[in-house]
Amino acid sequence: MGTDTIIRLSAFLCVFAILSTAEFFTPRRRLTTSRSRRWFANLTIVALNPLSVALVYPVLPIEVALLASEQGWGLLNQWALPYGLEVLMGVAALDFAVYAQHVLHHAIPMLWRLHLIHHADLDFDLTTGLRFHPIEIIVSMAVKLSIVVALGAPPLAVLIFEVALNATSMFNHSNIRIPGKVDWVLRLIVVTPDMHRVHHSVIIRETNSNYGFNLPWWDRLLGTYKAQPAKGHTDMVIGLSQFRDPKRLTLPRLLILPFVGDPGRVPINRH
């Protein structure tokens, strides 16, 4: 196991432990379905994703970043910039790429079919932030590897981004209560749970907002920011209108959902 893998796994376990504890003691919303059933399905999918990636890709983003640095590939390797600035630019560029990719997953019907497993969760907690179909993870990895090469992102930038993306995805999907004034300050620099929860609303115009994972600036700059859900955070309905029966959202059904499930109204294409 490489050093970068140890760092990523250690960060994941620490963040998961902290957030799951916080969710237990200070929940933002009352859960509407069985936590044990959801967590079994969601965490099993999480376990499948690294296996899927390993079967398809012989290298990971950090290894590609090292190769790009050695070969002088990519935009940042063409300029003599201070290393710290290269790292900051690399992290910001990768985060914008994730934002743009997320928008495309809502805009392109085929990608939406893969992504809807994430939105079909009837509750919203840290495991929702880890629940992505293995094929979506494979597609996302192809995009990520391409961007790392084209950008020439420093290996340190890729490592920081990978750790941050995993941690913030759990954080901004977590069911924790953050005081309003603290949330207002936090969402100036990071996507908060109250900000991202709007994106998981059953109301299409709210689903079509707040696409960011790490940085909140892209939504504000590109007009996809929505401050609060219309019905408030405690009364809003989470999920997709065509998938409301928990018995039809078991692990086997979730894995075949992109192929047999009703895609409903793709937000950007239909509105």
Automatic annotation (TrEMBL):
One of its GO terms (molecular function) is oxidoreductase activity. Keywords: Membrane, Transmembrane, Transmembrane helix. InterPro entries: Fatty_acid_hydroxylase (IPR006694), Sterol_Desaturase_Related (IPR050307). Pfam families: FA_hydroxylase. It is found in: Membrane. Its main location: membrane. GO terms for biological process: lipid biosynthetic process. Residues 88-224 form the Fatty acid hydroxylase domain. The keyword Membrane applies. One of its GO terms (cellular component) is membrane. The chain crosses the membrane at residues 6-27, 39-60. The keyword Transmembrane helix applies. This is Fatty acid hydroxylase. It comes from Desulfococcus multivorans DSM 2059.
